[in-house]
Amino acid sequence: MITLSRWFAGEPRGDRLAAFGREGERSDADLRRDVAALAARISPAAGRDLLLHCDDAYAFAVGLLACVGAGARAVLAPSRSPEMLRELAQKAHGALFDGEPPSALADLPCWHPLEAQPEGAPSAALPRLVDRDAPLAVLFTSGTTGEAQRIGKAVRHLEDEVAVLEERFGAQLGGDARILATVAPQHLYGLLFRVLWPIASGRAFLRSAVLHPEELAPHSGGDAPFAVVTTPVTLRHLVERGELSQRRASCRAVFSSGGPLAAELAQRTARALGSAPFEVYGSTETGGVAVRQQHSGDEPWQPLRGVVAESDPATGCLAIRSPFVSAGERGAAGPERFVTGDRAAFTDTGEFHLLGRADRVIKVGEKRLSLPDMEERLRAHPAVSDAVLLTLGKAAKRPRSEAKPSEDQSGTPRVAAVVVPAAGAWDALAADGRRALARTLGDFLAGYFERVLLPRAWRFAAALPSNAQGKLTQETLRELFAAEAPPDALERLGAARSDHALELRLRVPWDLAHLDGHFPGAPVVAGAVQVHFALRALEELIGAPAQLAALEALKFHDVLLPGAELLLRVERERDRFSFALGDADRPERRYASGRGRLGLRAVEPRAGGESAAASVGEFPPIAELLPQAGAMRLVDRVLEHGDAGTRCAVAPSHGAPFRDARGAVPAWVALEYMAQCAAADGSLRRRSHGESLEPALLVGSRRIEFRCAEFDPAQRLEVTARHAAGRRELLAFDCAVFDARGGAALVEGRLNVLPGIDGRTRFSR
Amino acid sequence: MVSASGLEAEIKALIVEALALEDVKPEEIETEAPLFVEGLGLDSIDALELAMALEERYGVAIEDDPERNQQIFASVSSLAAFVADQRAGAERANA
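Above: the input entities. Below: the structure tokens describing the complete assembly.
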């Protein structure tokens, strides 16, 4: 062990592996050289605040240690969200990032911690000893209970905790265990377990941001012993896939933190590995507090050495005094005390049981309601696998500005429930819908609670939604209720991002708005809907609306049904992007893929002018021509049909499920207008030959060009489709979307359609 | 009459154009290399589109015969042989 304050006095060890992974191996000597080189580049930096965010844990370690060596304080940006970075940049003097520096930091000097330096570049003279009271880093709370807070940590807070961890677990791990962490280094758990503890104890750590549990295996270094540092959410994936059990002999320990670990999962992990995971209880403010291993599920928490856990007389909550506590941005000089929001019951030996959050006993009207009690009842219902309750603030019908503020505040919080149905309950949910299951569960709860206390809003999800750190937060839960209208989003089960890529684990809810009428009785997620969610994810990645110039090589490989769990990956490099949507568990099963270009050159739709929308001839109502119905029937009627193709009017309410907060419909929805116009063209042709209507499948498009970013719902649009090529199983249609007032095509491209979903093809698909 | 190597070059250009392949130049496609999975890495949707493009360009007819089609679509050279064969057949029929 070498403590952080003495680390710079250590001898470089070229023979000791410090970090490994796809990015390459680095020895202890490499680490020291890289730290000295970076410290020279950022100097003078004493007393300055430098933003630090790296996906590569080794680059992160170099950045952090260079800050320590140069006397700077590292501000650990919790994410790369542009809004967050812009805000943090105002208070920072520079930034250390791997990858391309985000544009939000354009005004700051930026360094890549691992940028190659010319031979003979200066390296800084580093202090051999670092002041234990020197401020080391600013972390951000995870927002489990509300807004993220800045928490400052001095060198001593972290090195003292590392020493206690090594004392408690060092023998269990052995000196040679490799550390495989799935948690980000910028949060306290990852900072300690993924970076600082391995460096201090001479254990090698995995560099890459591990996106998938399955990536753990190939990087764990053959049969090298290893320890896993993870969260309950990721641990569940790991155990369910059985990858840990294959490597059971080499696994020395599993650590879980970031949320409560279900007793059932702890026991499954124990069966798979021979020993139960070490659960770590703590927070950004308190640092590590206590540890336990669940065998029966009722084991008390054992405080770490140096931690005093007691009941706070004023609140009845758990209070912590320890050398690791630092609850403000400038940590106090001496030991601090921090009162958590958790209720606890103590045993005679100073251990404790957690009883849930104190703020989870709420008042509804004059009645008190314990949310944990109601959750426990819900979980006892046979249709429920897991459940969590939250409050949504005041009733939706908020009085307008004339209301007195005091009235607003005295309103009653609405209780809302997020339920993970039991395996057998999905069929009922699919058949009878969300409301029916909510009513069943409400009636069940009414046997134990007064009606006034029952949840007012319900959401059903495949898993409780967690954020990038695998934590269940109020924010991720509230997102499920953001829209009171029918849900128009996929359920988010997980997310991982870097500068260039965003990867989302998603589930298609049975009541997704885009399944309304697509198709009646046979729900299928339309290709355009898949593109829609991919491009929304692209917008999240770039932090701005996608100004789409073109979509290319668009392919729909397989039929996507509700209930499917998906992995969506979007990548972006300058103005090019690509996406791939596949099954979350079987990567070979693909649903959609494509690429495209940003950098729209918009044309103005011609103003004024008369509509060219007069019908040419009488055509059957669109309902007889298209299998689509409900919200997903986007074209309204046929205006013209002949050898040159078909022209349709787009319904005035077009694209309702696709609208953004401002009501605008993104231009890529034109893909569905085109597909429906092509389908109408096909139907009219089959009718003229006396053949019956047959659903067609959109296979893709080589190229679609865009000359507008979005449509106004009030805008009158027309779409044309002309059969351009193909005779049997694959038909190509040249399509375009126009403003009904005329002007150049707003969207234009060739669509490939497979007529007849079950149609035999000359190639197996 | 296009020579065999001329036809192969035409088909390579057609593949790149019809499938909007990115970062692939026609001359980089190997005449004998597999088109699907390995080699160029095309998939079943590409196969459908390529069949459509071949029918449009050369007026050939590709039948419902998965085994035969696997041979035809094995490589650029097998595609070129198929197109040349079909055309020769058409010329004999017209003669």
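Note for the figure: The first helix of chain A runs from residue 28 to 42.
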